[in-house]
Design a protein that fits this description.
This protein is an all-alpha fold. It folds into 3 domains: 41 residues, no CATH class; 201 residues, no CATH class; 157 residues, no CATH class. It contains 21 helices and no strands. The radius of gyration is 21 Å and the shape is globular.
Length: 402
């Protein structure tokens, strides 16, 4: 066995042991947190707070109260009444700011009691992600399932498993099944901040059929939501989106979730930069992300590294992304680590992968200490992905790394 191959096998063994240890900790963290035991990590109470918002929006529509869904004050009061037994105290600011396409998708879960609805929601979204991405590589997928980002997704009751499945499932099918790829990527439009660069990537790659199906699916979902939920709900969403960009709502949102935010804008605000400078930094990061995606998809063939560039750029271009969204990066981390093992790891690349893997809880703590590093880690990971995308050697699957 050559030294390079022996070192690569050692890296894989160490990574496997590391993921197993982290996974055991995460499992214990969840069990203790949900059973009322001693905390061994950050507290997120009540359990699955984001799903409580989704469930409340679905219940409001089913009860004929659609008009209050995009009214922040009225909808917050509705949640306090609906979930009074689960909330330790009345919440003051819990808006539903997703487009009606997400309300349409989450509507069936409103037919169940919230605990059962949460269980079904997580099972369905994780099942979709497993079917579209996880079954490609069971060992890698097991590591992703026990990653800290996956734990935060489960704790929050968020939809990141679904986003992950649609994102990677669609991008991996662009070359050989553009229509199906477009259906999956178009469905991702329910979460605009994670979808925003997908059309740009398809244009850069000259994947016109996939682009047409992507845009067509996004439009079809919007029309279907208007038919099922009523056209007026889109008008209410547009008004709410406009209100959400006001300084009052932006500041309120930041004060409540800044510890979870992963964006350059949040980083600038946490360290105390003026609003104009913070906005300029976010704009610069967005331009960098757009340029990186354009050239990665215009000049280079389909690869795991090219997808990783898009995933990293998505976090740089969006002014609103939270630590549970980091689950979207975990398949890219697995793929790039394996590429590094096969081709040779760059200096500090192990540290970048390690830090990114732990970033969901680590970033939370550092944000609270006034040391925001999440955007910087994501940027460094994007640099690694960019360099890997220039390589003529691609890692087609886990077998090459074994």
């Amino acid at each position: 066995m050559t030294p390079g191959r022996r070192n690569g096998r050692r890296d894989l063994v160490i990574a496997g042991c590391f993921c197993a240890i982290v996974g055991l900790y995460d499992a214990l963290y969840l069990i203790l947190g949900w059973s009322g035991g001693p905390l061994i990590g950050p507290s997120l109470y009540p359990p699955f707070p984001d799903f409580l918002v989704f469930h409340a929006a679905a219940r409001a529509w089913l009860e004929g109260k659609a008009a209050l869904i995009y009214d922040i004050g009225a909808f917050t009061a509705f949640q306090n009444a609906l979930h009074a037994g689960r909330l330790p105290e009345a919440v003051q600011f819990r808006p539903f700011l997703y487009p009606p396409t997400w309300l349409l998708l989450v509507l069936p879960f409103g037919a169940f009691a919230v605990g059962k609805a949460y269980g079904l929601f997580m099972a369905v979204t994780a099942g979709i992600a497993t079917a579209l991405e996880g079954r490609r590589d069971w060992w890698g997928w097991l590591a992703i399932l026990v990653s800290p980002a996956a734990v935060w997704t489960a704790m929050a009751g968020q939809n990141t498993f679904l986003s992950l499945g649609l994102f990677y499932g669609g991008l991996r099918l662009v070359e050989r099944a553009p229509a199906l790829a477009g259906l999956l990527l178009g469905a991702l439009s329910y979460k605009p901040q994670l979808w925003v660069l997908v059309p740009l990537a398809l244009v850069a790659a000259r994947q016109w059929r996939a682009l047409a199906w992507t845009i067509g699916t996004a439009i079809a979902l919007a029309l279907l939501s208007a038919i099922v939920l009523g056209a007026e709900i889109w008008a209410a969403f547009i008004d709410a989106a406009r209100a959400a960009s006001s300084p009052t709502v932006v500041n309120e949102t930041f004060e409540r979730v800044y510890m979870q935010m992963t964006t350059p804008l949040a980083m600038a605000r946490i360290v105390g930069l003026p609003p104009a400078v913070s906005n300029l930094l976010q704009l610069a990061a967005s331009v960098l992300a757009i340029v990186a995606v354009w050239f990665a998809f215009r000049r280079h063939a389909a690869s795991n590294a090219r997808i990783a560039v898009l995933a990293a750029a998505t976090f740089l271009v969006s002014p609103y992304a939270l630590n549970y969204d980091l689950l979207l990066l975990m398949p890219a981390v697995v793929a790039l680590f394996r590429m590094g093992v096969a081709q040779g790891l760059y200096p500090l690349e192990r540290l970048i992968h390690l830090t990114l893997w732990l970033l969901a809880p680590l970033g939370w703590s550092l944000n609270q200490l006034g040391l925001p590093m999440m955007p910087l880690v994501i940027l460094l990971f994007g640099v690694v992905a960019w360099h890997r995308s220039q390589s003529k050697v691609e890692l087609p699957g886990p077998a090459m790394a074994s």
